[in-house]
Amino acid sequence: MPYKIDGFDIDGITEPILGEGTTFVPLANVAQSLGGYADFDNDLKVAKIKLGEYDLQVQADNPIVDINGMPLELQAAPFIDSDMMFVPVRLFEKLGYKMLVEGSQISLDAA
Question: Is 90 helix (H, G, I), strand (E, B) or coil?
Fold first, then answer.
């Protein structure tokens, strides 16, 4: 299982993708596993995420994301694959989660 959230193995999340030296995870799957909500505008290629106190707006192929009205530059641009938006897993560190990547296992824990 590639994902562990707050110490629990999580099934049903799409496998991460490694590219550009970065681990990318499916934004909506991971956000929902953390208790958030996701909406995706396919025409604009924009995902809107509500995760705890954070409101995010993420656009495919744009490394600048909006978090609570403030821009944040990611180390790599999000992209669409198989109708899902993938983001660098480190985005979740910016949202206060402790992150650990060990081989194919990704762990995210509330800080």
Answer: coil
Going from N- to C-terminal start, the domains of the chain cover 3-110
Distance between CA atoms of residues 3 and 63, nearest Å: 24
Q: Where are the beta strands (DSSP E) in the chain?
A: 3-5, 8-9, 17-19, 22-26, 37-41, 46-51, 54-59, 64-67, 70-73, 79-81, 84-88, 97-102, 105-110
104/74: higher pLDDT: 74
Tens digit of pLDDT for each residue in 28-86?
Answer: 999 999 999 999 999 999 999 999 999 999 999 999 999 999 999 999 999 999 989 99
**Rg of the Cα atoms in the chain:** 13
28 φψ region: left (φ > 0), alpha (ψ -120 to 50), beta (else): alpha
Q: Which CATH superfamily is domain 3-110 in?
A: Copper amine oxidase-like, N-terminal domain (3.30.457.10)
